[in-house]
Amino acid sequence: MSDQVEPAEAARALSEIDRRREQVIRRKVFPAWWWWAYAVLFTELAASVESGRGVLIGIGIALFMAGSFAIDLPVRRAARAAAPRRGLAPGAARRTLIGLVAFVAVLVGAGSATGLSLKAAGVPHPGTIAAAVTGVLFAVGGPMLVRLEAAMLMRRSGSRR
Amino acid sequence: MNTPRFDELIHAPTRLSLVAFLAATGWADFKVLRDSIGLSDSALSKQLTTLEDAGYIEIRKAFVGKRPRTSARLTSNGRTAFDRHVLALQQIIAGTGGSVVAPGQPAGQAALRSGSHEADDEVLSGGSGATASAPDHR
Q: In this complex, do A10 and B93 lie within 8 Å of one another by their Cβ atoms?
């Protein structure tokens, strides 16, 4: 049978294989609202902690945990439904981890710098404002990180064959 | 190291799409497969059964609450057969004197450079089964 397959048909088949791999890699697991929902939760948690009142802190933590659980449900479901398999792109896991650590470092750095600056300037509620700024960075930068990871996975898995 | 082996069962257009999708993932839900490949429930069931009978995939049926959930994944035999089929396809193209894989480039794109330029826009031809379409779910 392979003798009867024309090179053009083989090329089409390989192109189809690449297309399906890309479909898996670029499949949307995190909805756009997920990032913003976490931004709101960060801010809510910071506001409750900054209030300094035990009851509010307790409510804030409970809300954060319940909210996280609720908004993570569809993401967990989507990831379980068809996630790119491990080993699809050799070396990708390490790069993903580095990207994630760098992203978290940027968020913590920006949040801390904002909070400390606001506190030094005597602005009220510096922690809440800093958390809101961090939340916005998270909501804007998160999808970009996901897109970068997908592009990296495509490059690395494509060159394997 | 796998040796190239053209696999007629995998090469049929719908099954190629299905196996290529499964090769990139672990377990995949029936619904995701159906929507991604663009098949009806019955057409997908038929193709999955064919692949399962060949020992290329395993099917898992579970209940989430009261809802049945069917998932499929490639077996190691299926993965090996797919890898060997890809090598066979690359070999066919390499036989024409073109490069199969350029560094940092997906195999299909590189292959297209050495093969037909209109290939990218065409649906796979030959083999059996329904024609695959690929709705974009991004």
A: yes
